[in-house]
């Protein structure tokens, strides 16, 4: 988070574990702060974890049935005081031969402790997004796939707008969309 600058100090730790190519565990933790004498110190914190389990491999089947999920959180203590939370889940199921079914979901929420200006009068204090994708995947050659997925994207942005007396009142604007994606 924050402007990418070379004046950072801190710690980043990543852990990746794998058991028998059937269970994968990932974890991340980081605490970084700015060290520039020109700017007030800002502390950035990030942590998250993910788990993937190939149920097909554990059950001794000749096909992949992989379930995955993860959570990620990041925040800053100064500036716009942003906080971001992200949850992800996925499913990959080999059906028969080269055909597999894929499904995935992601939800992200970003909050601003100090509202973020987007125009002369509007300020954003929260943005939420969710994305759902699902569809078949066909293996056409080694490491080459054709995937057609249906997607549903929903965004919700909460604004602060000035009312007639100059004070800020809350309004919410939602935009949703769906479509077919060829990857």
The assigned structural class equals mainly beta
Radius of gyration: 21 Å
Strand content: over 45%
| Strand segment count | 9
Total DSSP helices = 1
Instruction: Characterize the quaternary organization of these chains.
Output: single chain
Helix-strand topology string: EEEHEEEEEE
Helix content: under 10%
**How do the strands of the widest beta sheet line up side by side?**
1-2-3-4-5-6-7-8-9
Terminus-to-terminus distance: 29 Å
Largest sheet report: 9 strands, antiparallel
Apparent shape: extended
**Spans of 5+ residues with little confidence (pLDDT < 50)?**
171-175, 179-183
Mean pLDDT level: 84
List keywords for this structure.
183 residues; 74% strand; disordered C terminus
Write structural notes for this entry.
About 5% of the residues are buried. The protein has one helix and nine strands, in the order E-E-E-H-E-E-E-E-E-E. About 0% of the residues lie in helices and about 75% in strands. It is mainly beta and about 180 residues long. A nine-stranded antiparallel beta sheet has the order 1-2-3-4-5-6-7-8-9. A hairpin with an 8-residue loop joins strand 2 (about 25-35) and strand 3 (about 45-55).
């Amino acid at each position: 988070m924050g402007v990418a600058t070379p004046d950072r100090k801190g710690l980043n730790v990543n852990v990746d574990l794998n058991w028998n190519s059937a269970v994968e565990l990932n974890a991340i933790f980081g605490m970084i702060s700015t060290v520039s004498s020109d700017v007030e110190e800002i502390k950035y914190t990030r942590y998250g974890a993910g788990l993937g389990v190939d149920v097909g491999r554990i059950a001794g089947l000749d096909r992949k049935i992989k379930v995955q999920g993860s959570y990620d959180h990041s925040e800053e203590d100064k500036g716009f005081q942003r906080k971001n939370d992200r949850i992800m889940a996925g499913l990959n199921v080999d059906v028969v031969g080269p055909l597999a079914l894929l499904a995935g979901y992601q939800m992200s929420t970003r909050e601003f402790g100090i509202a973020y200006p987007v125009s002369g009068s509007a300020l954003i204090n929260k943005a939420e997004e969710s994305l759902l994708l699902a569809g078949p995947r066909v293996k056409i050659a080694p490491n080459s796939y054709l995937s057609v997925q249906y997607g549903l994207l929903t965004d919700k942005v909460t604004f602060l707008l000035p009312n007639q007396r100059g004070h800020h009142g809350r309004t919410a604007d939602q935009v949703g969309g769906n479509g077919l994606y060829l990857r």
